[in-house]
């Protein structure tokens, strides 16, 4: 907000004076004792564009709440004075979203340094998230409200109408490819059908994606990548029409596929490969080898060289940077937990090669502990130092709320999928260490209502259809292994606790294998150089083998866990 006022009022004044003011006699900065670097220098001609650059540099430093420039003509030249007001060193107490029903994920822990510039950037990020959710007219304002000495609440005030959803996608022109393949290439705009419809009676149950221009651009790129992977190296596509009517949008893409090329020869680093699948497999293997060596800058360029009518040779070139060793691993905002608790879930060691594959697995293990809000790629920062050959890693953690309550019931009959449950629980204080670190435990008080059990030998339902329960639980942590994933429930006795412990161990150790660890091997973007211009395609891992059987096994394990609790 300040920036808009500053540049709309001060700069026109500076531009008007630019024709009258000559050589700069003196430059002063008033309002701060900190060193300030300016392009405006004594002896130079007065230049409004240079003044603007200095204003922007000072503002985006985040160190000042207000900046004003005064230019005074004197006998020996022009005196320029920058008057600044230093920003207070404020810390975040809480984020308040009004109204609170938008599901924003900002991951701002308590104690985050706050300034007006930072608050403005947070508001812009919130608006970006809202527009990606289909709130095309969303606007976000902010206020900093003092709550204690140098602590503030950040209030985000949202104004938005109903979200716009994509109801229909059309492909016009000369697509050639099957409509199912085209719709399958979409990510942001894909319409997902959960249940098929009944003609003339019910349209079925569909999940409509949010509409935004950014989503359209992303999926245009993915459509182009699909055509390149299929051999249509001259394919062109663009958005022909996007019609928004109320809360619905209809999007039409115009596709000109061009000829289907016959690939005469695939070459990767001098070696021939026989198909796009073999090419992608070779690229994944090359990237994994580079990761094991500590290489974090890895890119692939595919050069398309036409040699005849609809015939081309393809040559891949791999470029990577220097290898790095793991420097300092830092966890931000983990005050409730011991550093050792977090490091036990990390597979990277300081001083070892910086293996990004192990880093992704480490983040996945942290997320499985359920101690924090989900950690995403944006929360992991790698800071390489070319001179030392080391790279520091910073992982930002946002703590979950300490207390929670829930009402839960079985997905099916209560005798099959567990009891009805009402509970209130809280994490214990940050005392102790190792297996006795209380902050890794949760205490809860519940009221359970049982039905007739399927396994009477493992149940208390036959004795007490309604039962108040006090429990202390330590959720499963991959870094703790057998020392986690257990419960202490006096009312159920040792037998039920042992069954629950065994079931939890089986579930937590088997589910990642059955699920195939999605996200641990991200797709690889390949730059494509072709006569008509540069583009991109993607190498993605093929679907896991026996996927339906895997999903069935996952469901069976989840039912087993519910039965053991009943």
How is this fold's topology laid out?
Elements: H1 2-18, E1 24-30, H2 48-60, E2 64-74, E3 77-86, E4 90-98, E5 113-114, H3 116-132, E6 139-148, E7 151-159, E8 165-174, H4 179-185, E9 192-195, E10 205-207, H5 213-230, E11 236-245, E12 248-256, E13 262-268, E14 271-273, H6 276-292, E15 298-308, E16 311-320, E17 325-332, H7 339-343, H8 356-368, E18 380-385, E19 390-396, E20 403-408, H9 414-417, E21 420-427, E22 442-449, E23 466-474, E24 486-488, H10 493-515, E25 524-530, E26 533-539, H11 547-565
Parallel strand pairs: 1-3, 4-7, 8-12, 13-16, 15-25, 17-19
Antiparallel strand pairs: 2-3, 4-5, 6-7, 9-10, 11-12, 13-14, 15-16, 18-19, 20-21, 21-22, 22-23, 23-24, 25-26
Descriptive report:
By secondary structure, the chain is α+β, with helices and mostly antiparallel strands. It folds into six domains: 2-86, Roll (Ubiquitin-like (UB roll)), CATH 3.10.20; 90-159, Ubiquitin-like (UB roll); 166-256, membrane protein fhac (Ubiquitin-like (UB roll)), CATH 3.10.20; 262-320, Roll (Ubiquitin-like (UB roll)), CATH 3.10.20; 325-392, Ubiquitin-like (UB roll) (Roll); 403-516 and 551-565, no CATH class. 27% of the residues lie in helices and 34% in strands. It is built from eleven helices and 26 strands. The protein has helices at 2-18, 48-60, 116-132, 179-185, 213-230, 276-292, 339-343, 356-368, 414-417, 493-515, 547-565; strands spanning 24-30, 64-74, 77-86, 90-98, 113-114, 139-148, 151-159, 165-174, 192-195, 205-207, 236-245, 248-256, 262-268, 271-273, 298-308, 311-320, 325-332, 380-385, 390-396, 403-408, 420-427, 442-449, 466-474, 486-488, 524-530, 533-539. The strands form seven sheets. It has a six-stranded mixed β-sheet. A five-stranded antiparallel β-sheet has the order 20-21-22-23-24, with helices on one face. A four-stranded mixed β-sheet has the order 5-4-7-6, covered by helices on one side. A hairpin with a 2-residue loop joins strand 11 (236-245) and strand 12 (248-256). Helix 10 (493-515) packs antiparallel against helix 11 (547-565). The longest helix is centred in the C-terminal third of the chain and has 23 residues, at 493-515. Residues 1-19, 411-417 and 457-463 have low confidence and may be disordered.
